[in-house]
Amino acid sequence: MSAHANTAWLLSEGKRLAAEIKALDGKPDAGPKLLVLYMQLQDVVQRAAAELPKEAA
User: Fold this and answer.
1) At a CB cut-off of 8 Å and minimum separation 6, what does 3 contact?
2) Is residue 11 part of a domain?
3) pLDDT the model gives residue 57
4) Whole-angstrom Cα distance, residue 16 to residue 28?
5) 41 vs 25: CA distance, rounded Å
6) Is 6 a member of any domain?
7) How many alpha carbons fall within 13 Å on the CB side of residue 47?
8) Structural domain containing residue 45
9) What are the backbone angles phi and psi of residue 23, rounded to the nearest 5°?
10) 44 and 13 in contact (C-beta within 8 Å)?
11) Which end of the chain is more exposed for a tag (fewer CB within 10 A), N or C?
12) In which domain of life is the source organism classified (predicted)?
């Protein structure tokens, strides 16, 4: 996968995770699912940050 395609996928995945997190907002039993989603989002952000220097080169 090219760096640009990977960055596009990471952006798409980040948006998807953010939408899922927002959909669970205010639900009292969402804690465990929110934890998983936030951990996945953190991973996506870290991977996107690692891609930024590649895109600039």
Assistant:
1) 51, 54, 55
2) no
3) 60
4) 21
5) 16
6) no
7) 17
8) 16-49
9) -65, -25
10) yes
11) C
12) Bacteria
Check residue 26 and report its DSSP letter. Answer: T
Residue located via tokens 């891609």: 51
Classify burial at 34, counting beta carbons within 10 Å of its beta carbon; exposed 0-12, middle 13-18, buried 19 or more. middle
Count of all residues that appear for the chain in the document:
57
Name the one residue in this structure whose structure tokens are 């699912």: 33
What is the domain count for the chain?
1
pTM (2 d.p.):
0.84
Is there a domain that residue 8 lies in?
no
Give the number of other CB atoms < 10 A from CB of residue 17: 20
Residue 1 lies in a domain: no
